[in-house]
Records
---
Amino acid sequence: AADKDADSDDREQWAKANPSYPKRTSEQAIMRMRNNLSDDSFRREALGIWDETATAYAISPDLWKAAAIDDVPDGGTVSFGIDMPPDRSVLTIGAALRYADGSAIIQMANIKDARQVGTMWAVDWLAERWPKTASVVIDAQSPAMSLLPELKKAHVKVTVTNMQEMGRACGRFLDMLKAGTLKHPRDEYQPQL
């Protein structure tokens, strides 16, 4: 990237941000971008300079902090969700405790480095808890779907969500958070959440 305080027309900064300039990426190509984009867009696209104040959150940090609790009350009906990133580096099991008053508490139930211990531990972990579990959910697009056959063999019934169901669930999550009916343990108790 170019220097953050770079002049957008400085050819040396163009070269710093674009190693292919001026041989493979011509001055004419960069000038075309310069003329067709706003200054902010050009700085992002051609120079790799991003606006440091432009930060967007799906969940307001203040809203998340306000939903923190110190203790998880007894009771509640437990459901688990399983997910993995595309690189399958880690397997995460999240828990949601739903209470009779309509409130819920979410928390990290378990997380392990799949590169070190694999993923089959999750099958045993969920099978052990299945008799007292309302549901186990995996999104259809999640790499964790590879566990579905083994979970079925272990008699764990899995709900597979599609894109529309996941969208509704995310919307419900935010609605409950804003309404104050969704809580979570403080971040210092589970920083990975």
---
Amino acid sequence: MTKNLKKYVLFGILSLVTFLGLLLKTTSLVHAEDVKFSVTPIYPSNQIDSAAGYYKLKVTPGMEEQVQLAIQNTDNKKIRLKITPNAAITNDNGNIDYSNSTKKPDKTLQYPLNKLFSGAQTITVDANSKKIVSFTLKAPQETFSGQILGGFYVTQLDKQTNTPLQKDKAVGITNQISYVTGIQLTSSDTMPAPELKLNQVQAGLRNGHTALLANLQNVKANTIGEVKIKTEVRRADQKKVLFKSSNSDMSIAPNSNFNYSIGLQDQAIQAGKYHLDMTVDSNKGKWHFSKDFTITAKDAKYYNGKAVGQTNPNWLLYSLIALLILIIIGLIILLFRRRNKDNSTNN
């Protein structure tokens, strides 16, 4: 009987560990073996660097040309793909992103790349075969300084629904099987001096958690890389630092903006007047911003009500964990009582 109880205790512990592991699993990667196709740029004659690995094209005003890419299907069955020329944006993680075709362009972006190329194409590539796809590029009518940045975003589609194919949908993860080939257009050797601006600072949420969002804007047609940001937030007219953050290895697309987030460690947002100090260091220069901002009681109430850490404790999860712990404790107590009873009998 004692051996059986030991087995039950061990089973209970293993069950608890497994249960917690499944609940805490929130991320997953689409591994290379899941991507059954490759994309290779076919460079036109105006490619600047043949070793670049992406399109780096020097264009002249009003020129029109065909830009091609080769799609290789390495799977044993045919696949369906959607190829979309997108303008580069900066996502809220502080990275240049070519996957978004719906975000409103920054108002300083004069020539969105997707407006210069012909529209998205949906193609079918037979098993273990290659297909050449062509897009029409129409350059701006005038010479421009700096760079126009974007890329071909290639997404595999579900054959039944014709929507982006996703992995690990069973656990709520929506990783799309996709591929990006970058595009950079220039028409002169003139590169504008970088200029970064801090716009509004406001309360908000980041991944469901309370945060302050500082909108940074790159107003020039010049990529800013190797970005490091440090921030400190205080109450207005006070020296005590309430919140601070530090991030590095970021990059900002030309003529784009993004919301840099300062986490509040799941503390409730408090209405009031605040002051932010921010230092941005990069491979193109260094900027320091100092800005007063106000959080209204209305905004504080709204975002606190939406925050995961503030109003949505997972009582079901806590209850199940507590129940499993109680079962294990009960089994352990029963094991000891049985052992003591056996010892008394032997004596």
---
Amino acid sequence: MLLIAHSRILDYLSTQEIAELYTINKLHLNHLKRIKALKSSIWRGDISEKIRPKFWIYQCPIYKVQQDVCKMLRLPESFESPYQFIQNSITLNKPLEESSLDLEATRNEILKDIPRTQLITDNQKEQGQLLRILLALAYIKPSIGYCQGMNFLGAVLLKVVKSEEITFLLLLGMMKKWDMENIFPE
């Protein structure tokens, strides 16, 4: 199957142009087959544990997300850790200017759900990390705040990437990339 608009177009193309179209078509089909194979591997759980963190980071470029967070917080794009800035702001109870988020009420809601998050029920360190991640998400997205279900997504990503800051950036990136703000409405 050639990627051309009309079958009679071949009459007007040189042999070299037809060969190039065939090559492009073949590359395109190979690309589609690789995508299909990758999706199939994901659903079967065939992706090795070593590559999973890189896979998630590839799916959601965290450097772009980090730049977006810097813009939202009015920090220089080269700011080393906007996540740490958010954590410091939460510790100091300094909400965003336009935010009406009640950090203490949000913290209490998250604390109710964390013990029910099965992946991390036995790990105090991961529970603390997940609490900070979810509070940071609520802080940066006050229109959403915290919703049940975020804890499960966060716990899975935290288990896979094993980094609090990267988990935060991945969740934020996923929310943007897959328009998850509609899943977690106001």
---
Amino acid sequence: MACPSRAEDLSQDTFMRLLGRDELRAPREPRAFLVAIAKGLLFDYFRRAALEQAYLAELMLVPESEHPSAEEQQLILEDLKAIDRLLGKLSSKARAAFLYNRLDGLGHAEIAQRLGVSVPRVRQYLAQGIRQCYIALYGEPL
């Protein structure tokens, strides 16, 4: 990581995750546990940076006269990152199924074929994605 301040943030976030966990017992391998947390945070950072770059690349395809304001762009990026965090709680196949359906408009059979799973499994994946969206909007169902 080239940016020292980002490395400091990652270090702080790693220890905050460690301190904020529910289990009170110390991990058997503290160093390995910290490395695992840091790797996860680093992966999230790069995934979100790639998401931001993809948005900016798409924005360059739009005529400049139609670009949102800098403030609107920032809000859009915040929303994209929030959606990414939300969908990050799903398995990779569930996330792919949800995005294929909601963004690309693919049907269950085509998604099943692309992912190499059954149509009922695709339905389960979509239900998981919808549930995550519900939780984000309204909180855990009673």
